[in-house]
């Protein structure tokens, strides 16, 4: 797969078919033309992506605080990276993020598959249901946070009232206790993103060939067998991409946590991004914040590359 | 281009017109130029001044008075109001870009050391000696309360501004419940002493326990529609939790740094004070782990809690007939102490008008600051439910009889103690906010929580210990 030129990202001419050693002048001109056409977007990308990235890498080897005099950007080598290993708060934040991702994305996947199968069978209401499913996703995450902040308010939130009436945990304010606050965040994320999984699954199902299912039904396979042996394996590529997409998003979870709990109670809901935000913008340690950000970036990049590999056509 | 020159021309014409009318109305021209009717210089007429201040009663009242300032001086002020966190962020980002977008910034005084050492803000000593422009006769820097002014604007050898908000912490309690004969009788029978505003922490806890009641029970002779809680306190991972705890810490004999200037966050006194505060949470409304000073104010206004250690600048809100259910029912007193007879302490939370070092309008900014400190403006702050910083207003006889909290404001200000103002404070505060919130929410024991902060703060202070000036 690595030999496939199409997977070489960042090279503007990589998408063009090209045989080494046979570059005619005409082909050369076409390469240049490609670069020139893409120049504006490359320049913009360079300004908004590359420059901050290079700047962050540089910053992460310095000591730079906006409030402490004397820490004006001296190079301190790997000190910021070493600090991560003894930073218990960072470890806690990573753990919280992991718990958040695993539970939120698994729930979204299970619900998404179930709802996607139902949606696929719908005949008349399909369009309406699809539009409704889009709603949670098109609301800004910050607004999702505010909506649930109101609903889960300990004194007057309507969801608090419902939980209280049903005698469920969280009946006296889900956001005020560590475990219920974390659970609430996960469920709000599920509310927001399970529809995405549903639509992905529904789209994947509608693209599946009909013949294997007809064959299975002729062979007398039950619904569960069909699902396990046929639907799920055939959906696998779609599901894998959807899960990876959600995971890269969930690593960067910030808005809802910021609005709903501020990372509390205690450090129960302090996810990685929120921790970095506090290091950079509450403690004003820009250099350590940059180092933390780069580590997160590396993790997201790893997941993104995995997703790209899955999307790329399989080598024969 | 054309538009710009038209604007400049019309501004010039306006200035000319103002100058001419100023002359004809008979005011005396001074060395710096024209002066308005009350002696305020009009040298900077037409200047646009950008000011940012915390969203509080004071800022709201000040905003409504800005047209007066413009009428006096011709300076147009645009006042931006923001909550604590967001204000500090906007200030720091503006300082580091050196753009001078804000000319005058009202800052919380714990950032004084950082902003002064980084030369983000400019000293005003020279202006105080010789005002850069003529100031009105109703401004006198001698009238600013010294034990408020010093901690909020003096860093090492210089003064950096004037107090914009004389906030400090005090105890608020439901006077109507305390004065109810049935409550008094019941309390005495249970605890063996008279029900009165707490002066010691033991009493504060007893009273908290006494008044914690479910909905449907009676309190002060009326049935409760909502539960009543003995206290309300801040437990969110937020600066308000840190500031409230420091009252318990100080009165228990603790502090952030010991007498030799080393980190003493996990001292036995501090641990005991946090254990005490944790004990109080049994009598606090559910949700205290998400509560900041805002929730405390709302709960007191709704009559949800019987006592609180909270901010003096919210006293006006308690007596605000449009928002409060406890108008005339609140009592205001000094913060309790550990042992009867200890000297009371009050956490100073004042804010300071400072001038941005990168501002191009420093002199106009100083004039604004002086006007905000002038007696008529400060009287209006007081009357509108805000807090002034002038001795004459704080001891004004009329206000003392009219406002139930006025006497206590002055008393608490004389007991005020300030938190460290060193540049590392933001890190210390963030670390404590996390660990105090962990302890209060039961995620860690008080000892574990303070041990964690001790370690983090010691690392943060690396190279800056011992702290000899804070």
Topology:
The complex is a heterodimer of chains A (about 325) and B (about 475).
Chain A: H1 25-59, E1 62-64, E2 72-75, H2 79-86, H3 88-121, H4 126-138, H5 141-151, H6 158-166, H7 178-206, H8 211-218, H9 223-251, H10 255-260, H11 272-281, H12 286-311
Chain B: H1 2-24, E1 48-54, H2 57-73, E2 76-82, H3 84-97, E3 104-108, H4 112-117, E4 121-122, H5 125-129, H6 146-153, E5 154-155, E6 158-159, E7 161-165, E8 169-174, H7 175-178, H8 181-191, H9 201-211, E9 218-219, E10 222-223, E11 229-232, H10 239-251, H11 268-280, H12 293-301, E12 305-311, H13 315-318, E13 330-333, E14 346-347, E15 351-356, H14 362-372, H15 375-383, H16 391-394, H17 397-402, H18 406-414, E16 416-417, H19 425-440, H20 446-460
Parallel strand pairs in B: 1-2, 1-3, 11-12, 14-16
Antiparallel strand pairs in B: 3-15, 4-15, 5-6, 7-15, 8-12, 8-13, 9-10
Task: Give a quick set of tags describing it.
heterodimer; A: 316 residues; mainly alpha; MetI-like fold; 12 helices; 2% strand; disordered N terminus; B: alpha/beta; D-Maltodextrin-Binding Protein, domain 2; six-stranded mixed beta sheet; four-stranded mixed beta sheet; globular
Report on this model:
- The complex is a heterodimer of chains A (about 325) and B (about 475).
- Chain A is globular, with a radius of gyration of 24 Å.
- In chain A, helix 1 runs antiparallel to helix 12 (about 285-310).
- Chain A contains 12 helices and 2 strands; from the N terminus they run H-E-E-H-H-H-H-H-H-H-H-H-H-H.
- In chain A, strand 1 and strand 2 (about 70-75) form a beta hairpin.
- With about 325 residues, chain A is mainly α.
- Chain A has helices at about 25-60, 80-85, 90-120, 125-140, 140-150, 160-165, 180-205, 210-220, 225-250, 255-260, 270-280, 285-310; strands at about 60-65, 70-75.
- Helix content of chain A is about 70%, strand content about 0%.
- A two-stranded antiparallel ribbon of chain A has the order 1-2.
- Chain A has a domain at about 90-310: MetI-like fold.
- Chain B has about 475 residues and is an alpha/beta fold.
- Chain B has 2 domains: about 25-165 and about 350-415, D-Maltodextrin-Binding Protein, domain 2 (3-Layer(aba) Sandwich), CATH 3.40.190; about 170-345, Periplasmic binding protein-like II (D-Maltodextrin-Binding Protein, domain 2).
- Chain B has 20 helices and 16 strands.
- Chain B has helices at about 1-25, 55-75, 85-95, 110-115, 125-130, 145-155, 175-180, 180-190, 200-210, 240-250, 270-280, 295-300, 315-320, 360-370, 375-385, 390-395, 395-400, 405-415, 425-440, 445-460, and strands at about 50-55, 75-80, 105-110, 120, 155, 160, 160-165, 170-175, 220, 220-225, 230, 305-310, 330-335, 345, 350-355, 415.
- In chain B, helix 2 (about 55-75) links the parallel strand 1 (about 50-55) and strand 2.
- In chain B, helix 10 crosses helix 11 (about 270-280), helix 10 crosses helix 19 (about 425-440) and helix 19 (about 425-440) packs antiparallel against helix 20.
- Chain B is globular and about 75 Å long.
- The termini of chain B are far apart.
- The interface of A and B includes residues 67 and 155 of A.
């Amino acid at each position: 797969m690595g030999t496939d030129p199409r997977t070489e990202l960042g090279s503007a001419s990589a998408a063009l078919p090209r045989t080494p050693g046979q570059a005619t002048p005409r082909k050369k001109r076409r390469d240049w033309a490609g670069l020139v056409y893409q120049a504006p977007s490359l320049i913009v990308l360079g300004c908004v992506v590359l420059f901050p990235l290079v700047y962050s890498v540089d910053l992460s080897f310095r000591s730079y605080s906006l409030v402490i005099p004397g820490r004006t950007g001296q190079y301190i080598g790997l000190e910021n990276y070493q600090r991560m290993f003894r930073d218990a708060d960072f470890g806690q934040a990573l753990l919280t993020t992991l718990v958040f991702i695993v539970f939120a994305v698994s729930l979204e996947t299970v619900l998404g598959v179930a709802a996607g199968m139902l949606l696929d069978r719908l005949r008349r209401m399909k369009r309406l249901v699809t539009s409704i499913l889009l709603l949670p996703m098109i609301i800004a995450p910050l607004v999702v946070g505010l909506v649930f902040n109101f609903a889960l308010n300990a004194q007057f939130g309507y969801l608090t009232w419902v939980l209280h009436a049903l005698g469920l945990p969280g009946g006296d304010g889900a956001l005020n206790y560590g475990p219920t606050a974390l659970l609430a965040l996960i469920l709000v994320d599920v509310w927001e993103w399970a529809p995405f999984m549903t639509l992905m699954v529904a789209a994947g199902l509608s693209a599946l060939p009909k013949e294997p299912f007809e064959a299975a039904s002729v062979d007398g396979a039950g619904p569960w067998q069909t699902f396990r042996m046929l639907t799920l394996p055939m959906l696998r590529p779609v599901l894998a991409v959807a899960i990876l997409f959600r995971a890269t998003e969930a690593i960067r979870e910030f808005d809802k946590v910021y609005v709903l709990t501020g990372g509390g109670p205690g450090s129960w809901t302090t996810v990685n991004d929120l921790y970095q935000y506090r290091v950079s913008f509450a403690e004003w340690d820009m250099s350590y914040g940059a180092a933390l950000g780069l580590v997160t970036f590396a993790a997201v990049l790893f997941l993104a590359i995995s997703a790209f590999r899955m999307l790329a056509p399989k080598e024969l | 281009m054309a538009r710009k020159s038209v604007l400049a021309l019309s501004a010039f014409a306006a200035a000319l017109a103002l100058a001419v009318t100023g002359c004809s109305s008979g005011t005396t021209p001074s060395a710096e130029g024209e002066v308005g009717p009350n002696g305020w210089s009009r040298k900077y007429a037409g200047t646009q001044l950008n000011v940012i201040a915390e969203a509080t009663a004071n800022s709201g009242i000040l905003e409504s008075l800005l047209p007066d300032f413009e009428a006096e001086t011709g300076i147009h002020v645009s006042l931006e109001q923001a909550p604590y966190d967001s204000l500090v962020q906007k200030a720091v980002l503006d300082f580091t870009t050196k753009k001078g977008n804000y000319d005058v910034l009202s800052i919380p005084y714990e950032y004084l050391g950082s902003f002064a050492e980084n030369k983000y803000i400019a000293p005003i000593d020279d202006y105080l000696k010789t005002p850069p422009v003529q100031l009105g006769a109703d401004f006198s820097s001698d009238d600013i309360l010294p034990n408020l002014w010093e901690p909020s604007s003096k860093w090492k050898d210089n003064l950096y501004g004037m107090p914009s908000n004389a906030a400090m912490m005090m105890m608020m309690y439901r006077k109507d419940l305390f004065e109810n004969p049935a409550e008094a009788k019941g309390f005495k029978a249970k605890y063996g002493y008279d029900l009165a505003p707490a002066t010691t922490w033991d009493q504060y806890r007893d009273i908290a326990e006494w008044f914690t009641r479910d909905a449907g029970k009676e309190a002060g002779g009326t049935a409760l529609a909502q539960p009543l809680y003995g206290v309300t306190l801040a437990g969110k991972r937020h600066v308000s939790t840190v500031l409230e705890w420091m009252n318990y810490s100080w009165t228990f004999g603790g502090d952030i740094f010991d007498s030799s200037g080393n980190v003493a966050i996990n001292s036995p006194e501090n641990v005991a004070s946090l254990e005490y505060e944790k004990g109080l949470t049994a009598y606090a409304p559910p949700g205290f782990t998400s509560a900041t000073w805002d929730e405390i104010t709302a709960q007191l206004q709704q009559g949800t809690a019987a006592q609180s250690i909270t901010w003096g600048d919210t006293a006006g809100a308690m007596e605000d007939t449009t928002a409060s259910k406890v108008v005339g029912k609140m009592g205001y007193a000094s913060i309790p102490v550990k042992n009867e007879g200890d000297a009371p302490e009050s956490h100073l939370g004042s804010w300071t008008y400072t001038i941005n070092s990168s501002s191009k309008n420093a002199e106009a900014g100083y004039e604004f600051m002086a006007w905000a400190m002038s007696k008529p403006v400060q009287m209006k702050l007081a009357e509108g439910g805000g807090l002034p910083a002038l001795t004459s207003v704080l001891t004004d006889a009329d206000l003392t009889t009219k406002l139930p909290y006025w006497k206590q404001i002055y008393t608490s200000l004389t007991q005020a103690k300030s938190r460290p103002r060193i540049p590392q404070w933001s890190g210390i505060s963030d670390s404590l906010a996390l660990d105090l919130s962990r302890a209060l929410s039961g995620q860690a024991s008080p000892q574990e929580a303070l041990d964690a902060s001790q370690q983090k703060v010691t690392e943060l202070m690396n190279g800056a210990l011992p702290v000899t000036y804070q």
